[in-house]
């Protein structure tokens, strides 16, 4: 079992890191991803988002299974019965079964399931490592690559009530830090960004952010002297 765990951890660490942060109006997902087609972040249901690091084909299978679970449960019972906690439990059972099976290799994936609530206090973020355990996270979480170093950076700087521009800037700064402590620049076109925005009037709160809107948000967090400024939610 120790060998299987080490195998899975090494596979996850080879992938690019991603971060999930709470901000005043919801939850933002940020990751370095040069591909425009192979997404790290996806919508699962009305208020629920999905993020994953590791092998794409493996976490894509999990994402599709989660969408099917959510659609079936929402249709059979009620849309409000589809929750991030219930989805995290389903993923935990699947990952745990695969990890303990001697007939197949463990999945090289680490997942984040997030649900935006009516208020920041009702937001839910769950991290699911390769072995199927569930970690209830608050404020910020990082997975993949050098996630431990990024998490430490975020824990020291993340605060409640940040604007979207501020949270996005912090996420990019955390992802830009190399393992040796140096800073590199990640251009906007290499970023994948999505939000669960509680202020959206429609039921579906998930939205991707890119192009000119993303560039404006990145610029909005810096004042003329490079200091951070609040710019509101920044969503359209």
TrEMBL record:
<comment type="similarity">
    <text>Belongs to the peptidase T1A family.</text>
</comment>
<comment type="pathway">
    <text>Protein degradation; proteasomal Pup-dependent pathway.</text>
</comment>
<dbReference type="InterPro" id="IPR001353">
    <property type="entry name" value="Proteasome_sua/b"/>
</dbReference>
<comment type="subunit">
    <text>The 20S proteasome core is composed of 14 alpha and 14 beta subunits that assemble into four stacked heptameric rings, resulting in a barrel-shaped structure. The two inner rings, each composed of seven catalytic beta subunits, are sandwiched by two outer rings, each composed of seven alpha subunits. The catalytic chamber with the active sites is on the inside of the barrel. Has a gated structure, the ends of the cylinder being occluded by the N-termini of the alpha-subunits. Is capped by the proteasome-associated ATPase, ARC.</text>
</comment>
<protein>
    <recommendedName>
        <fullName>Proteasome subunit alpha</fullName>
    </recommendedName>
</protein>
<dbReference type="GO" id="GO:0000502">
    <property type="term" value="C:proteasome complex"/>
</dbReference>
<dbReference type="InterPro" id="IPR022296">
    <property type="entry name" value="Proteasome_asu_bac"/>
</dbReference>
<comment type="function">
    <text>Component of the proteasome core, a large protease complex with broad specificity involved in protein degradation.</text>
</comment>
<feature type="region of interest" description="Disordered">
    <location>
        <begin position="217"/>
        <end position="236"/>
    </location>
</feature>
<dbReference type="InterPro" id="IPR029055">
    <property type="entry name" value="Ntn_hydrolases_N"/>
</dbReference>
<dbReference type="InterPro" id="IPR050115">
    <property type="entry name" value="Proteasome_alpha"/>
</dbReference>
<keyword id="KW-0647">Proteasome</keyword>
<dbReference type="InterPro" id="IPR023332">
    <property type="entry name" value="Proteasome_alpha-type"/>
</dbReference>
<dbReference type="Pfam" id="PF00227">
    <property type="entry name" value="Proteasome"/>
</dbReference>
<keyword id="KW-0963">Cytoplasm</keyword>
